[in-house]
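so my prof wants the structure for this chain in the tokens format not the other one, which i didnt know existed until like an hour ago. anyway here's the sequence
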Amino acid sequence: MADRLVVIGGDAAGMSAATNARRGRPDLEIVVLEKGTHTSYSACGIPYVISGSVDRLDELVVRTPQEFRDGFRIDVRTRHEVRGIDLDARRIEVRALDHERTVHLGFDLLHVATGSRPQRPDLPGIDGPDVFGIQTLGDAEVLLEAISQRKRRTVTVVGAGYIGLEMAEAFVKRGARVTLVDSGPFPMRTLDPDMGARVAAAVRRFGIELRTGTDVQGFEPGAVHTSQGTIPADLVVLALGVSPNSGIAIDAGLEAGAAGAIKVDHRQRTSRAGIYAAGDCADSRHQVSGGRVHIPLGTVANKTGRVAGINIGGGYATFPGVLGTAVTRVCEVEIARTGLNQAEADDAGIEYRTGAVEATTRAGYYPGAEPLHAKVLVEKGSGRLIGGQLVGADRSGKRIDTLATAITVGMTASAFLDLDLAYAPAVAPMWDAFQLAARAALA
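here's what i got, hopefully its the right format
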């Protein structure tokens, strides 16, 4: 009788593990349990459906459950919610939501890919009919239906991280008057304050009313109550960040790691033999600080899921860790970051110098050259690059990949200056912005 692998969660970290396990072990029985109705979709694309840039939600689906059944012989069971895990008995309690019945399923191998859960503080009115989350395709379907039922002239977005900024922009494009509220002093808390201030300026130029240093106190139909007064709102979107959805695994006895995520090793193995975890529910090693961190990104979910699947399938793979590299385009600027910011470097006890410059996307004299602001952090003593950020115009954001590569290989700022990067006036300036920032840090 073939071993059975049970995968909890049918999105990136779950399905990448399942398909890679299948490639390694054609004999393996694979069952995927997914609470929702969709598998393998890009939640990152939801704001673009809301804005109208992407026509339909189903365009975000990479593979349907049936495609996994037909192409990979994976038994995908949607609308199946895991209620409990017995690690000693190797058994899972599952609620089949459509049939309203509970079943128990045994396993030989287990992969936990339960993702993250949105932050939803216990505030008056937060469960009201006009307050929406946007983490899953199901959430997006509900939001789109609410928008189609009546015109939403005033929208308040709570939380000014990546998703909050993207949702605020989406509703401006739909013609709404948008207020973006955040309790912090500036948007994008993964940036340093000077870079966050530039994002704030771009948000306001785009026509969004940005209220920082503002705590939300409650909701009622047509209004959001805050520490700075009441904001009119026909519709509210919550974008307060996420926490690892690891409770069911930790309660079962798996060891907890950073931020309450499931602790895993470099092969995505948990504290119990034969049980793996990946994606937003698991922690990772930071490549610069060496500490354990929880960084919920789709890129990390796909990569860690692949590593888990290869190991489950009998192969050997490791995950080296994360830098937190991320990029987005909102309000006509591109925002990118990688490695440590100043607060993270301070927390890690790393002393550093910074270099920051104003540069351009092309040669300054060439038509269409646009401004960008780049910043790097360089460790004192060793001179190694440990982080960087960028806020700039179109064509600027993907420069972060060059810096991420340099940090990954442990490059010093001096060596980075000597990289033979491409130059042509219509494409890029003579000196890359991050090279100029590195030079400034060494001055």
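also thought this was worth mentioning. Residues 120-238 form a domain with the FAD/NAD(P)-binding domain fold (CATH 3.50.50.60).
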